[in-house]
Amino acid sequence: MTAHAGRLPHVRRASAAADRAAKHAFRSRRVWPGLIAALLVTAAGVLTAMEVITERAGRPAHIVPYERVRDWAEDTAWEDWPALAAAGGLTLLGLLFLLAGLLPGKSRVVPLHGEDPNLMVGVTRRGLKAAVAAAAGDAPGVSSVRRVRLRRRRVKVVARTPVRDAEGLDSQVEDAVRASLDRLQPLPARSVSVRVKHRET
């Protein structure tokens, strides 16, 4: 009889699918850029509809001064700076909305590694910071944790110690924080950076 160590292929595939599902579920929805874009498009649609309907009815509303816009467009060449500035501004606005829709935002919840795509688990950023701070504070020689910064792929910890000769303490704190992250398994995986400062008691 032959025994194989390690995880089965279908388990690995399910785990990868679970990770993708968790990342997607807890991704920031970019509510404010979407709301602003929706309001702008809705306002433009309403104005256009009002102008078309009132024009067909024989009593044009003229909410937007199209004649002035048309006259300005006829008298302005594409090479003139007002036309270039208007085109550049509209292009930049469109790119900002496009990037807001494509790039992931800063979510309040950090997804955790799982095995089941139908069961997604996450922890708040504040909760993850608290877990990191608690792990760093429990390391021998650490009196307090001054700051924990949570980046997308890195965790930065600044701790304080009353020990003058703190050689090797930063690696102990790093190991403690890494062990805590290994238990939680946040997505994506994060490297650990630790700085220990001496503080008089």
Features of the shown structure:
membrane; transmembrane helix; 6 helices; 5 strands; two-stranded antiparallel sheet; alpha+beta; 3-stranded mixed β-sheet; single chain; elongated; Alpha-Beta Plaits; transmembrane; 2 domains; disordered N terminus; 201 residues
SSE topology sketch:
Layout: H1 9-25, H2 31-56, H3 66-75, H4 81-102, E1 109-111, E2 122-124, H5 125-137, E3 144-150, E4 154-161, H6 169-184, E5 191-198
Description:
The chain crosses the membrane at residues 31-50, 81-103. It holds the Pfam family DUF6286. Residues 92-197 form the DUF6286 domain. The protein is an alpha+beta fold and 201 residues long. The protein folds into 2 domains: 31-102, no CATH class; 109-198, 2-Layer Sandwich (Alpha-Beta Plaits). It is 52% helix and 14% strand. It is built from 6 helices and 5 strands. It has helices at residues 9-25, 31-56, 66-75, 81-102, 125-137, 169-184, and strands spanning 109-111, 122-124, 144-150, 154-161, 191-198. The N and C termini lie far apart (63 Å). Residues 1-11 have low confidence and may be disordered.
